[in-house]
Amino acid sequence: MLLLKKTYQAFFILGVFLIPFNSDIPKWMGFLGEYSSDSSPLFFIISFIFLLVYQLKSGKIYIPYRTIEYQLLMLFIAVLFFVTLLNMHHIIDYYFKQTSGTMRFVRQMIALLISSGAFLYTFLNVGKDFGALPFFFLLRKIFLISFVLVFCCGFVEFLIVTFNLTQLRPIFDLFDMFPFVNTRLDFKLTRVSSLTYEPPALGTYLITAAGFLFSYILTGKKIIRFLPFVLLVFLAIVSKSRTAFVVILLQAFVGVVLTYIYYKDFRKHFNIALLFTVIGVASVSFVYRAAVTEAIQERISSFDFTDTKFSQTNNSVSNKSRLGIQTAMIQTIKEYPIFGTGWGQQAFISRYHYPNWALKNNYEFTARYRNQFDKSFPPGFNLYLRIAAEAGMVGLISFLLFLFVIVYNTTFWFKKDTQTKFIPIVLLISFVGYIFNWLQIDSFKLYGFWLCLALFILYKNRKLDTNH
Fold this sequence. Notes:
The chain has a domain at about 145-300. The longest helix is centred in the C-terminal third of the chain and has 34 residues, at about 385-415. It has a two-stranded antiparallel sheet with strand order 1-2. The chain has 19 helices and 2 strands. The protein has helices at about 1-15, 40-60, 70-85, 90, 100-130, 130-165, 170-175, 200-220, 225-240, 240-260, 265-285, 290-300, 315-335, 345-350, 355-360, 365-370, 385-415, 420-435, 445-465; strands spanning about 95, 100. α6 (about 130-165) runs antiparallel to α19. The mean pLDDT is about 90. The chain is about 70% helix and about 0% strand. It is mainly α.
């Protein structure tokens, strides 16, 4: 029995460690569906299987069914089943990309249940084995170790593509020895992806690790405690992932404000760092005025989507696809405002609402999104729009209520906690990151969210037991 327990815990730890290792996923992992682009789900699933075997033998099963967050999650899933049932008379006639509406619903529901069911259940039970506080420190240590590797690879990559230091190529190639890794260099856009398969994937990992690396500032005493989070921000900047840049700035803002208010020793260091930062930025801006101005203008222009509809450049193709699909989903919401189209069904309807400006000279729609021979469905690029389109206002309200209660209760325990306040700070930083990150992805495949939800449930139950 002890061997079984150690086994599912080991696979869980491996899964968390391998979250950023996804640039070379074997084709045989295609059976994982939308999870086949990452390595960690395989280890989470193996951990889940060993956990079930262990619990069936021991006769002990832990499900936090009395926790309001878990109840609201179950309510949201029940709503998805309900709205799909209401739309079933339409769904049975849908067919697109060699997939029927019924099969699409089954696949999408399984994908959701893998994260909200199997993964969350595994994270909760592994966390319960360790206890809330040791579980937090375990997760933080794993994220730190994996981040060190991600940063080393990303920094060498940055030096090569930015300063053309090709003599560092042998060092960069050494990272290919890690499992699930096939490093690549982007000299054209000079973007950094490190161990991940693309810069946005690196950005998602950095958003996931941000809260845990920020916690070193809260618990450490030496000046080096600032280094992990500073390096994370640096990597977010050089990755040139717009989402990561904005979201991590928001996460940093949340973390700094809360820490500045409640941690007195942080104020002195922050005030000194702020003074030197202002002096340094002012000095550099004065000496290299033209270069700094050009860099700032380039960064600002990367967030300008005003010409996206009409631009013919290759760099705007992904933006046109993203905005075009979101525009089509808004039209679908107008058509099915209350109960939506059914879970997983919006693409069957929204494909008729793609605007002409998004389709014009856009190979992504021709080769992928409207190609009947490509079985992958077009992404929605926004989870909230997707839920509104597929589950209507009923589904969106239930999901937003779920998120609101999580943030509200985390804030409540943050104010009430006196000894382990750093845990709710980390959770608030993380939840803010995930909530904003869902504005540009439409998948529940954010492993960090389910890890933080499990950690919060365990943390809250620990505080309730202590108070009781």
